[in-house]
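Possible regression after last week's pipeline update?

I re-ran a chain I had predicted before the update to compare outputs. Posting the input and the new output here so someone can diff against the archived version. Not blocking, just want to make sure nothing changed silently.
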Amino acid sequence: MSEFGWAHITEAQKPAEGPDTSLQFAKGTEGFISGSENLTFNYNSNHLALTGTMVVSGTLRANVFDVITTTKTEIDVSGSTNFGNDNTDLHRFTGSVHISGGLAQNYYRLTNATYTANVYDSIIGVSSSAYTAITLPTAQAAGAGKILIIKDEWAATRTDAYQIAISASGGNKIDHGSTFSISGDNVALSIYSDGISKWFIY
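New output (post-update):
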């Protein structure tokens, strides 16, 4: 048998194609290994990036799902879901919203003598028998159509000396005045904002 000290194999050392950080895949019938800038993995930041369309035939699981832009017209999920992680988060819906279950608004139980309402407050229940002062946010900050309900939850009749005094802020008005007072037997005040400078009683 003959012996050879070397052997030459054509294209044995040909490197895989594609830009840096691109994931490799078989290309063509010859099975060449290639890559694309549309599918990359940054090994420094552990960031997998895909530009194009991804088709998943199985289940896609993620601890965090951050949707930047979507044209999906229906989101169908089972179980409870959360949108946002803070009361100041704002979610806008253009069009009609149909809710087949219950709707719970943000409720704040007020026990202190003074309180500055937040723009996300929807119901303020005053449970203290003492004189209570509530300052509204500006109508502009609250936004047009913002509804706020202030309810006297104290069990006894509230006299004028222990009234709930509601004040507009920033030169705003409540109807045509800068203040409004609640006294009597479990009275409530319902107001809405015009988004400019006024709160109106309705």
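Follow-up from reviewer: compared with the archived run. Residues 21 and 45 are 11 Å apart (CA to CA). Marking as no regression found.
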